[in-house]
Structure formats: structure tokens, C-alpha cells
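Problem 3 from the worked examples.
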Amino acid sequence: MNIQINPTKEDLGRGAAKYGASAIREAIAERGCANVIVATGASQFEILEHLAQEEGIHWPVVTAFHLDEYVGLPITHPASFRLYLWERFVSMLPLPLKAFHYLDGQHNAAAEAERVGEILARHPIDVAFVGIGENGHLAFNDPPADFDTQQPYLVVDLDEDCRKQQLGEGWFPTLADVPAQAISMSIQQIMKSRRIVCGVPDERKAQAVRRCIEGPVTNQAPASILQQHDDCEIFLDTAAASRLTQEVL
């Protein structure tokens, strides 16, 4: 795990996108294609904006996968991550992707998790873009996260802290409107990625960042598992890094 601290969210987004884009280009140069995982949420705004603007990526040989999606939301809902990914990333690319495998959580979530999981199993991931939640979650794997399952995608229950984060970020009008479940890529599937680019802005995540970077690896702080990845780059802004001790910087 390597940590990069940036003055602002804009700098964080630019740096994470540049690093991830380099990894995508490297995979294309090696194999003629690349497979990536794309995250959503407020923490990824700047990253995806800059990634879509990166030059020298031949997007028609890139296959992308959806990290997580709410159960029960139609794509027309403002909080739909399928809508988010289309508006903020896929439609912004200069050339179309080879494929983007969206998660549709509106109908049979378990069947959808299995369907996209079977596709993912045939596409070893070169670069995974992820974030860390206020409760330390990785994707929608809330504490206590399942560190053992080998299923690519799971249908998970969202804890109250996670649901409050979605409300606080403005995605839903009331807590009652936040779905209780989601389809999430599993911890072990994320860890299979060749490289992980983790972007985390904002002071509200500073405590979670400290627990996950400085604390023990535990399913009570799910993103702490990133400490065990061989090639994980953490991009923070100064606010998110504000509670780290000097020893890790």
C-alpha cells in the first residue's frame, strides 16, 4: 500500500486518474486489451472526470465492470449507479468501450449477481477504482464484511451508517428512501485485481481512513484488507488524511 496526499479533491482526482490511466495503457500494451472496475459515489466525481479526459487510452479494447448497485432502484432514479456511470463516465469517453457490464438491481438481484459474476470470472481485472466509506466499507461490503467468500458478487444488507452516508451526500430525500440492500462486488474479488486505485476525499472520512490504513486488518473495517494487496495506491486529500499519524506518511 502506498499513500499519496493531495492538497484538494481536484488534485486527488487528477492524480488517481493519471495513475489508473497509466495502468490501463500498460495492460493494453501487454495484452491488447484491459479490464477495469469502476466505482461510484461522491468520492469518485473528480477521478472519473479526469479519467475520461486521459489521452492515449484506446477505449474500444477496454471492458469495464460495475462495482455495486442498489437493489430495487430503476435506472431513472437519481441515485441509480447505472445512471451515474453513464452520465459521469461512459458517455464522456471519446470512444465507446468494448463493453460495460452494468448491474441491474431492480428485479432479481441474486440472479443478476450471478449473471455478471460469470462474466467477470472470464475477465481478470487489471485496474480497480474503489473508495472507502464513512464506516470503512469497501464497495457495499459493510462491517462485519465477508472476507472469505469467493463469489464475485453478493447481495448484501446495508447498515444504518452506510445508509446515513448516502442520505448525507444528497442522493435520497429521507433515510427511509435509502434501499436496505445492494449488489456488491465481494472483498476477495476486489483483491484479485492486479492494481487497485483507491480515492478518498473529505474530512468526514478521516476516521475511517485512519482505521483502515493504520489499524489492524479486520472485517469491522472492511477496507483495511487493502493493506494486504501487493499493488494498492491510496489517494487522499489533506482533509481525509488529517487523522493519520506521521509514521504512515
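Problem 4, a separate protein:
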Amino acid sequence: MPKPSTIRVLLADDHQVVRQGLMIFLSTSPDIAVIAEAQNGLEAIACVNHDPPDVVLMDLVMPELDGIQATQQIKAAHPEVEVIALTSYIDEAKVADALAAGVAGYVMKDVSPMELARAIRAAAHGELYLSPQAARLLARRVQPPPHSENALATLTEREREVLRLVARGLSNQDIAQDLNISAKTVKAHVTSILQKLGLASRTQAALYALRFNLVPLDEI
């Protein structure tokens, strides 16, 4: 189902000053509109049930119900709603749990307005966005599929270019602009990359690129 031109966002964080700061951040992006706020996981679920947004910015540590549990319930009832985990610290277990719960992104609270908007746009288009810190953690623990080094040799040079940009957190639209090709062509390349490498998701592809040093960890 196509997303509307304006991305509707719910802010879920138990600190009012954080929500106000996010409102200021997002007010600079004309294609993003904050439609509601919640101060705990239960309120976030109620807001989504009442008026489903396109994207939820979800703090992971909140009273009443934490962000991971809230995400699980939201994704179960509203799979079309994307959730971005927003946190002030990075933890390997939290990253893994958040991804397992179905988040479409994992970003830090000290993120720049530009990066936050990029993560929201990526989520609204069904793409996953990981902060560099989260990607580094997961890259250290990812287990590549059997024969994956041989599979890497089957990628074309353009597919390798696309894979590197996926690993750097760029959306299909960003990649299209960077390579001067259409977003539809980028999507086709990503599909081909996943098939050739035996991977199931864009996230696995990004971690694969990091694991095999297609993109150095210090460049993301």
C-alpha cells in the first residue's frame, strides 16, 4: 500500500523535553508530520490503535510497557506501521531484541536532524535503517551463509556498488540519486543481491557487506 506524501509520525518517549526536541528536529522536514505523542508503551499502543501513523519513533526504555514489548504488540496488530527504535545508548542485546520485535530502524537520540529524517523516510518506504553504532555491533556477530565468499564473486560491479551504499544506510532513493539510476533499478539490484548471496533481508545484506569488508566499519 503506497504511503501518503506526508509521513505521519507518532513520538513515544517518557521525557517531555526529548519529545519537544524531536518536534523541533522534524519541523524542518516538510514531508514529515508529528500527529501524536505518547509517554509510555501503553499510550503508544493506544495511539496507534486510535489513528495508525506511518512511523513510530519508539524509546526503548519507558514505564508501564517498554519499547520492545510495545513494538511487538503494534506490529502484531498493525503490521503496516513501521517502528524506529530511538535510544540514548547502544547495547548488543537491545539491538538484537529490537530487530526481532520488528523495528524498521535503530537510531541514537543524539542523531542529527538529517539522519533522523533519513531513517523515517527509509522506514516509510519499507527499508531498514541502522545507526552506524548498531551496524557495527551486529556485524561482529553475524554468521554468513555457507559458500558466501564464493557467492560474492557472482555480484556485478554495479551490484557491489549498491551493496556498499546499502551498508552505509542509504535508502533506495538515496542510492538512485548517488548512482544516477532509477529507484526501481536499485530495487531490482537489491533483489538480485539477496538472491545471489542467499540472504533474506536488506539488513542481512548490509551486515554481509561489513563482514566481508566491502565497507570498513569506520566508514559507516
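Solution to problem 4. The chain has two domains: 7-139, 142-219. Residues 14 and 39 are 4 Å apart (CA to CA).
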